[in-house]
Design brief:
Helix content is 33%, strand content 19%. By secondary structure, the chain is of the alpha+beta class. The chain has 2 domains: 4-203, no CATH class; 216-331. The protein has a 7-stranded mixed β-sheet. Strands 10-12-11 form a 3-stranded antiparallel β-sheet. α6 crosses α7 and α6 crosses α9 (320-328).
Length: 351
């Protein structure tokens, strides 16, 4: 059984990964001189990019239809950046090579970029990892690079990230290895760049999901706060609802997935671009979160066999997060140490 503390740690890791992604792409989006977001920079997350014929198969001969980087940027004269955000790595280092093979798959003449012609003239490859892992990851890269197992033809960099708790909490980025084509940004990251948490939270308050499966309590909390609560608030009994009373709020999985995708995914940064972009959250994640609510007596299935609709037993609680941790704590199994290298259809979860 997974404890509430473990679940809270997983939720913190998930949100920190989101901050790492949005914080890094913000270096390209935000113009320091005008203090405004650039309108000539496009960012994306989880977008399906098609490999070149040379990299369209794995070493085992399996076909690769597409790659889906955690972050992507198009800026300047058809220049780009692709990257992965890895808060942690498996304890068993034999799996680390898979993560670097994933990064090497981005070192390719990919098509499907969100720009004219679907290609960029050049692009960098970046690995973002938590500051507690970065030394070991850099050592691993240098070892494998010296052995010829991990190589990049395009500029490659490893950048650490992490929260810094001071009077004004910040999110710190620092380049630990390699180089970035943008020389100004490369030097800034070499010295380390703190970004105020308040700035990230204000600029990217709507981004709460990315193309990786979130912890169950996190997903359940989003459903409760942003889908169930607005509907409950429309009920005439809502203003006078006591803590020992509840309202039944009927929802469909389709509604849940659609509303969270439109309101809290990376779609909020590019609302007019839907081709090749992932549907986040996946319906399967919504079903699993609702199963946790049902198991915790906080909801019931309309039809248990189909699991297409659910009735949430809404009630007012002091802390939605604590309530979701309580509801989900006994239902969560330990997650797998390593996720699939490439995402397929809804049967796999993106890492």
């Amino acid at each position: 059984m997974t404890s509430g503390t473990d679940l809270q740690d997983r939720m913190d890791d998930y949100t920190d990964t989101i901050f790492a992604i949005v914080g890094f792409v913000n270096f390209y989006r935000f113009d320091d001189e005008t203090r405004q977001m650039r309108d000539d920079v496009m960012v994306f997350q989880g977008r399906r990019l098609t490999p070149s014929p040379a990299k369209a198969t794995t070493a085992k001969g399996d076909k690769i239809d597409y790659v889906t980087p955690d972050l992507g940027v198009v800026h300047g004269q058809a220049r780009g950046v692709l990257g992965e955000a890895k808060h942690s790595f498996p304890r068993d280092r034999q799996f680390w090579i898979d993560d670097f093979r994933q990064l090497m798959a981005y070192d390719d003449d990919l098509t499907g970029w969100p720009c004219l012609g679907g290609r960029v003239e050049q692009h960098d490859v970046v690995l973002l990892t938590h500051l507690t892992n970065v030394v070991a990851v850099c050592d691993y890269y240098q070892q494998k690079h010296s052995q010829g197992e991990v190589t990049f033809a395009r500029p490659f960099a490893i950048v650490s990230f992490g929260r810094v708790e001071r009077r004004q909490p910040s999110f710190h980025f620092e380049k630990r290895l390699g180089s970035i084509s943008d020389k100004g940004l490369d030097e800034r990251l070499r010295q380390g760049v703190p970004v105020l948490m308040s700035v990230l939270q204000d600029a990217y308050s709507t981004v709460k999901l990315y193309d990786a499966k979130p912890p169950l309590p996190y997903m359940a909390q989003l459903i409760w706060e942003h889908v169930a609560t607005p509907r409950a608030s429309e009920h005439p009994r809502f203003p006078s609802l006591r803590k020992n009373q509840r309202l039944e709020v009927p929802l469909t999985i389709e509604q849940i997935a659609d509303e969270l995708h439109k309101g809290f995914s990376f779609r909020t940064l590019a609302p007019d671009r839907t081709e090749r972009e992932p549907q986040v959250p996946r319906k399967k994640w919504c079903v699993e979160a609702c199963e946790a609510l049902v198991g915790g007596a906080a909801a019931k299935w309309a039809e248990p066999d189909s699991k297409e609709a659910v009735t949430v037993y809404f009630r007012k609680v002091d802390s939605v997060l604590e309530y979701m941790l309580e509801v989900c704590a006994g239902k969560v199994e330990a997650e797998q140490p390593q996720l699939p290298l490439f995402a397929g259809d809804d049967s796999t979860d993106r890492g």
